[in-house]
Amino acid sequence: MNPIDIRSPFRETLHRLTEDCRPVTDGENASYIPSLADVDPDLWATAVMSPEGDLYAFGDVDHEFTIQSISKPLVYGLAIEELGLDTVLERVGVEPSGDAFNEISLDANGRPVNPMINAGALTVHGLLQEKVGGRADDLILDGLSRLAGRRLDSDREVGEGERDTGFRNRAIANLLRSTETITCDPLQVFDGYSWQCSIKLNVCDLATIGATLTTGGVHPVTGDRVFREETVQWILSVMSTSGMYDSAGNWMNYVGVPAKSGVSGGLFGVIPGELSLASFSPRLDEHGHSVRGNAFFHRASSELGLHMMRVTGRPHGALRHRAVVDFDEDGIQDTTLLRLYGDIDFCSYEAIDREVTRGAASGTGLFVNLVEVRSLAPKAKELLEELLMAAGEKTTTYVHDPANLLDHAACSAPQWVDQAEIREYRSDQPERRPPRKLLRRRDARKPGPGRKPAAKSTAKGSDSRRKR
Ligand code: GLU
Fold this sequence. Notes:
alpha+beta; 5-stranded antiparallel beta sheet; 5-stranded mixed beta sheet; 18 helices; 15% strand; disordered C terminus
């Protein structure tokens, strides 16, 4: 069969946005070391990756640049994994500083206010050196390579330039040692941090690293779990509040995506569970962010509706369909059918709770179908099990959960059934017909609360399942 090319409006949209930003030529390359100052300022690349690992990349996609401050949230994540959150929090706070990246500041407890400013990033690097008892380069390079899904390397020239010119970072490292925020050799920490900033990658690597955060820590292609979900939550939180330094507030309001920039011109953002975006363009604004990258993210957010705080009024999932039906053509509505779907968390669980309790209160049996549920957050699982137990004790409750999202053994009261349709369940498996309880209730039925004859349109309606 011949392959057929059809348009991909998704790809075209991203390509157009990339080209729309090409004319943005404001700003200047970082100039503190020649190897950044001399980079072609017109280089321009963008990349987007889905949580399934589909990559959309445009422009100078193979050009490698140094990671610089983009390493900060990632090494912070490695430190949380290696040392535990509490140990890291003892040494570095999570308050936005509103200061520039290289501000020399500590909070009242002697901790750097967050891991995105250099004082915090040097401390995090120092924690890893304390852990390994020397340079932590291998641990860091391994971690970042796993996030990218390929072996990364460092740029020797940039690393040396960082060391030769990093008088302020050296001063910060010494300050941190004097307050015992770090307990190892401050110059070794400074050297190691300078090297960390010089790790090379391209825009596709950056989008891939973002996608690994998007999924909650699992590389979308290799399947390698690099971070626990809780670690990713901390990484994305500090990126949201401090990733863009003294423009973090504006960034969050206008773009609304946790992000991190680096002085070589890289920028990446993560929409949890949905997409990662990355860009590279060397010209910087006064905050040290890529001007063109900034324009790309602003446009992408407003045109594509990426802002995390956008209120759509749509839940992620819960209740796809609810019907109250009569299976016996007697005009008595006897079963509430609930079809659940999607990713159910505590908030979306509310609708299920409401309908199950309402159904039980109206005297109907229940048929709860989970076949379209993709995930159940731990709290939603716990509450749904409690709810179905309670319902099962009071009324006939069938639950169809083929993926075993719920703990069937621990949750004995509802009847777990194999068929998605109660009609099929009753007719195909006569030996497993619903217990007499349901039928007995019908004998005693009298119109009354919750037992009123269904209106024609509801009772018959278009729901063929009611006929047997
Ligand atoms: N190497 C730079 C520094 O720490 C990184 C700064 C940045 O990318 O914002 O001074």
